[in-house]
Automatic annotation (TrEMBL):
Organism (species): Rubripirellula tenax
Residue span of region Disordered: 199-223
Superkingdom assignment: Bacteria
Signal peptide range in chain numbering: 1-22
Keyword annotations: Signal
Listed name of the protein: Uncharacterized protein
UniProt feature, compositional bias: Polar residues: 211-223
Compositionally biased spans, kind Low complexity: 199-210
Length: 321
């Protein structure tokens, strides 16, 4: 009888300690998990729309990707999974890449032997007879400052193109979008050089196969030599605060200001006048910045107070597309 009672006590003690350890582990997980990252708040909750569960998630996960893209069929699948509208012409796939008010036609092919995807972005048609060789050489000279891409002159089609290539192995939709976005950023950053080569033509003869702008284009609103401010940017402030902002080419903005675990979210309209930037939100005072510098990957803004005096400078880095 005593042995039976001892066994029962031992079983009860074992069950009690098991539940206690489980409760402690649960409390520990809650405490550790209640620490949201700034990038999650800024990019997932604010900058992505309700349709975020679209192309990437609907087809393949970022982790699985595409083991090896070997032809137009698999390239089409990958591009459509990344959200692009494709058009096939034999071995060549054509898409449009939109960035900061520009639409860039891009054609892509697969070089199976070299294990790479080749991209050609069409910029402007030119008339060799009306363009000086010095102007073309000036554009070619830009190549020394461009990483992983190059400006070329297509003599057959009389076209200035920007081209690049990257591996066709283990390609994810995120990587595809990043490569194409980077190519567009390079084109925009040097648009003041190549747009001067554009053939003077009537509106009826303008080719839809070259770069187009819509609405407020960076060619009109961005000073020569300066990259576009449009896109998603992340920066940091004193006192352990962070900030993320998205500037839209349509004249809108979204902003998240995070201090500790508290986030303030705002949105409204954006007005750019030379190097002055004004953010307006309904019912609140305008926020004004001076654009100190901007490149394809980095931007520096300085806050301007109501009296016009310059204040705190904030450095931003371009977020992945």
């Amino acid at each position: 009888m005593r042995n039976r009672f001892s066994c029962l006590m031992l079983v009860a003690f074992h069950l009690f300690t098991s539940h206690l350890l489980s409760d402690v582990a649960l409390l520990s997980n809650v405490a550790l998990g209640d620490d949201p990252l700034f990038s999650e708040i800024a990019m997932d909750s604010v900058f992505t729309t309700a349709a975020v569960a679209s192309s990437d998630v609907a087809t393949r996960t970022e982790a699985s990707g595409f083991d090896r893209i070997t032809g137009p069929s698999s390239l089409t699948t990958a591009l459509e999974s990344a959200g692009f509208i494709t058009k096939q012409n034999k071995e060549r796939i054509s898409i449009k890449v939109e960035n900061a008010g520009w639409k860039f036609p891009v054609s892509m092919t697969i070089d199976v032997e070299a294990d790479r995807i080749e991209c050609r972005m069409s910029l402007v048609k030119i008339d060799p007879g009306s363009v000086s060789s010095e102007m073309v050489l000036a554009l070619m000279a830009v190549n020394k400052d461009v990483k992983d891409a190059s400006f070329v002159f297509d003599g057959d089609e009389k076209m200035i193109r920007l081209q690049t290539a990257f591996t066709n192995r283990n390609v994810t939709t995120k990587e595809l979008k990043r490569q194409l976005s980077n190519l567009a950023n390079v084109a925009i950053a040097h648009s003041d050089t190549w747009i001067q080569l554009k053939t003077k033509s009537t509106p009826s003869s303008d080719s839809p196969t070259t770069a187009e702008t819509r609405g407020t284009s960076t060619a009109a609103s961005t000073p020569a030599g300066q990259a576009s401010i449009f896109g998603k940017w992340a920066g940091s402030l004193p006192s352990d605060a962070s900030i993320a902002v998205e500037f839209g080419a349509s004249g809108t903005f979204k902003m998240v200001h995070l201090v500790g675990k508290k986030a303030a979210i705002s949105s409204g309209t954006l007005v750019k006048n030379a190097d002055q930037l004004t953010l307006s939100e309904s019912g609140k005072a305008d926020v004004k910045f001076q654009i100190v510098s901007v490149t394809s990957i980095e931007m520096q803004l300085r806050i301007v107070d109501s009296s016009g005096k310059s204040g705190l400078s904030i450095k931003f880095l371009k977020a992945n597309p």
